[in-house]
Specification:
Retrovirus_Pol_polyprotein; multifunctional enzyme; catalytic activity; HIV Type 1 Reverse Transcriptase, Chain A, domain 1; Alpha-Beta Plaits; RT_dom
Length: about 450
């Protein structure tokens, strides 16, 4: 959870507990779920421990005698019922997670993180990490929690946590898993395509424009589509493998810095990158990538609607990072700056604009992001000698009128003549042709 929001929630819960407005209730039938995001240790030192072997971690939790009959099963050797919680029960994961959270509640966020049977202790020095480890092991002894020594890694600077290699530098892919994915042969039927996309999709936050690259493979999963692993599919298959082997290191977020959202749209998919920069003129370091394909209705959106759809998709995807933080959105579509103030927009755009009001957003031109050094220099004030005012000007200069063309000039010319501007780029021609169909 965002640290800003986390502190607010902690303060409010403490206040309500003191006023006896709420009370602890760990076995309620109803609960509002929270969003889970990948964690990165907050300090350099790290200790990773895994709770027990296979499913024995679950079996450390007793089942109430009056409910044990609900776990009855039969086999050729008889009928049996569990006295301890096994794998497979629908409520087993959240019961186990609640148990771990209850045991280490006073240590979470400050010195350790717990997700199911993965314990991670961290600190900014060796002695502090050793002290945190001692606290956790003492708590395990006091609560009769058994650990599997073979799966514990003590006092390391990096380790595998939830399938990712985590260190103080950031989060990386697990090379052993990448080797398995890259060794997969070319799929020969739909199930193998689905399996490959599932394995590669686990690390999709490391791959820019994952959905766009995987689109030929995703099309094979549709109903009533003949399986033809043609050249575009082979290209997408190899490209995903190459991207996984060269995946970047995603750095940890800094809650003191503003977040930056950048987009890379296409005609069929949405792509976004979340990053931060340490200062003006410095490069952006990536935190996460996100992408998805557009549905048939969204493919017919105008350029403005697609740009706004990208922002809405990104804010929803990275909500746990962005809520309560400053957000700088870079876009090459200038109309977005004025769209938030337009009173007579379409109902869909109005609904999206209402969603944006929850965030602290600043929209900037993409060209400014690409030329950050020049943009920084433009803000530096420089004292110069004032140029004297000339009292005499030729009448040709005084009477000269320079009227800029309106924004719709190119659209009107295209509708009337079906000709593009002479110096227009291919991307501008495509956008002009797409926008012009709404004025015919």
């Amino acid at each position: 959870m965002n640290l800003t929001i986390l502190n607010v929630v902690k303060k409010e819960v403490t206040k309500l507990l003191a006023a006896r407005i709420i009370y602890p209730n760990s076995d309620s039938l109803w609960v509002s779920l929270m969003q889970v995001v990948p964690i990165v240790p907050k300090k350099s030192g790290m200790t990773v421990m895994k709770n027990q072997l296979d499913n024995l971690g679950y079996m450390q939790i007793h089942i109430a005698p009056k409910h044990q009959h609900k776990t009855t099963f039969t086999c050729p050797f008889g009928t049996f019922a569990y006295t301890r919680m096994p794998f497979g029960l629908c409520n087993a994961p959240n019961t186990f997670q609640r148990c771990m959270t209850s045991i280490f509640s006073d240590l979470l966020q400050d010195s350790m993180e717990v997700f199911m049977d993965e314990f991670t202790m961290y600190a900014n020095s060796f002695d502090a990490c050793l002290e945190n480890l001692s606290k956790v092991l003492t708590r395990c002894i006091d609560t009769n929690l058994v650990l599997n020594f073979e799966k514990c890694h003590f006092m390391v600077t990096e380790g595998i946590v939830l399938g990712h290699l985590v260190s103080n530098r950031g989060i990386k892919v697990d090379k052993s898993k990448i080797d398995i994915i890259t060794s997969l042969p070319k799929p020969t039927f739909v199930r193998e395509v689905c399996s490959f996309l599932g394995h590669a999709g686990f690390y999709r936050r490391f791959i820019k424009n994952f959905s766009k690259i995987a689109l030929p493979l995703s099309n094979l999963l549709q109903k009533d589509v003949d399986f033809k692993f043609d050249q575009p599919c082979i290209k997408a298959f190899q490209e995903l493998k190459n991207r996984l082997t060269s995946a970047p290191i995603l750095q940890a977020q800094n809650w003191e810095l503003p977040f930056e959202l950048m987009f890379d749209a296409s005609n069929s998919a949405l792509g976004a990158a979340l990053g931060q920069r340490a200062g003006v003129g410095k490069p952006v370091h990536a935190i996460a990538y996100a992408s998805r394909t557009m549905d048939p209705t969204q493919l017919n959106y105008t350029t403005t609607e697609k740009e706004l759809l990208e922002i809405v998709f990104s804010l929803d995807k990275f909500r746990s990072y962005l809520l309560g933080s400053k957000i700088v959105v870079f876009s090459n579509h200038v109309a977005l700056k004025f769209l938030l103030k337009k009173p007579d927009a379409k109902p869909r755009l109005i609904w999206w604009m209402l969603l944006l009001q929850e965030f602290n957003i600043e929209i900037r031109d993409k060209k400014g992001a690409e030329n950050s050094v020049a943009n920084h220099l433009s803000w530096i004030e420089k004292e110069n000698d004032q140029m004297p005012i000339k009292d005499e000007f030729p009448d040709e200069q005084l009477l000269h009128i320079n009227t800029p063309l309106p924004w719709f000039a190119d659209i009107c010319n295209f509708v009337a003549t079906y000709q593009f501007p002479s110096e227009a780029s291919q991307l501008y021609k495509e956008r002009l042709q797409s926008d012009a169909k709404y004025y015919i």
